[in-house]
Structure to design on (304 residues):
């Protein structure tokens, strides 16, 4: 493991008209699926990464098939903007129509790719009453992992992601307020998975945090802890001998870390896929005494 110290603001782009919010692109899940399949080659977790690649592929197909969703009213959106509140926060929003059908559709699509035990585990999603699915979704959205069905969680989470990503795509960045604290998504109020340094256009070299639920990305300067706003003593860790596409940004104040995924080191790097493929780094950070501040819904439990 190696450590490099960077000065706060050292590498930040000059202030100006930078895109503060990136709403999710149309091919989000397809890009993710392709990156997962690429990362699976010669990886010790190849079976797991390939399974998640199939799940992401199924998410993309479903996203393309959904009819337009109903956003909050214009009045509600204006109110959220005025009070700097996330307009798509799950607590203030009815569960999107059709989300349970999406969960069952995803389960049916990926089930054949699993060994018998995994297939049986996903059968629960197909057989369960609506009320059970609603309850499981509620646990996930509230971050209550104790009462989650571990085998069903990645698929239920994937279904919620599809619908919240669709809702976010129907927004205009001008309808979303910049939050007071950068640790939660300005669109839906969820935690980030990780952060990503983007390449190309006006976003070149900028760091964005990637939302675990709605897939939106918001700008947070580099060399600053997104969990507690501290910018002193930020240190970077990476696995010795690795390709440095993914580094862990650690904070000595709150003792947490968030991964930084570098598209400038690999153009196809993805904040969710590359996070899953670098679990070794999480183990090393745990040993070094840092808690993970990012949440990856594919990983709330291990491989089925
Ligand atoms: Zn979000
Ligand atoms: Zn911190």
């Amino acid at each position: 493991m190696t450590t490099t110290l960077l000065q706060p603001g050292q590498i930040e782009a000059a202030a100006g008209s930078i895109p503060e919010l990136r709403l999710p692109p149309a091919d989000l899940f397809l890009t993710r699926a392709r990156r997962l399949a690429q990362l699976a080659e010669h990886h010790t977790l190849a079976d797991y990464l390939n399974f998640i690649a199939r799940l992401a592929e199924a998410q993309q197909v479903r996203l393309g098939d959904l009819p337009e969703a109903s956003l909050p009213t214009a009045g509600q959106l204006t109110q959220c903007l005025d009070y700097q509140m996330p307009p798509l926060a799950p607590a203030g929003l009815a569960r999107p129509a059709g989300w349970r059908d999406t969960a069952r559709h995803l389960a049916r699509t990926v089930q054949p790719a699993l060994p018998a035990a995994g297939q049986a585990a996903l059968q629960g999603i197909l057989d369960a009453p609506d009320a059970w699915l609603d309850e499981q979704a509620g646990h996930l959205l509230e971050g209550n992992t104790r009462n989650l069905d571990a085998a069903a969680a990645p698929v239920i989470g994937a279904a919620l992601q599809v619908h919240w990503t669709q809702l976010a795509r129907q927004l205009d960045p001008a309808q979303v307020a910049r939050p007071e604290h950068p640790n939660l998504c300005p669109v839906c109020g969820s935690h980030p998975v990780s952060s990503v340094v983007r390449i190309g256009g006006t976003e070149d070299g900028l760091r964005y945090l990637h939302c675990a639920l709605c897939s939106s990305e918001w700008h947070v300067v580099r060399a600053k802890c997104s969990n507690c706003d501290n910018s002193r003593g930020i240190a970077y860790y990476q696995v010795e001998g690795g390709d440095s596409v993914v580094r862990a940004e650690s904070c000595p104040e709150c003792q947490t870390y968030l991964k930084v995924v570098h598209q400038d080191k690999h153009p196809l790097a993805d904040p969710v896929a590359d996070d899953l493929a670098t679990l070794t780094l999480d183990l090393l950070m745990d040993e070094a005494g840092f808690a993970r501040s990012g949440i990856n819904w594919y990983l709330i439990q291990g491989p089925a």
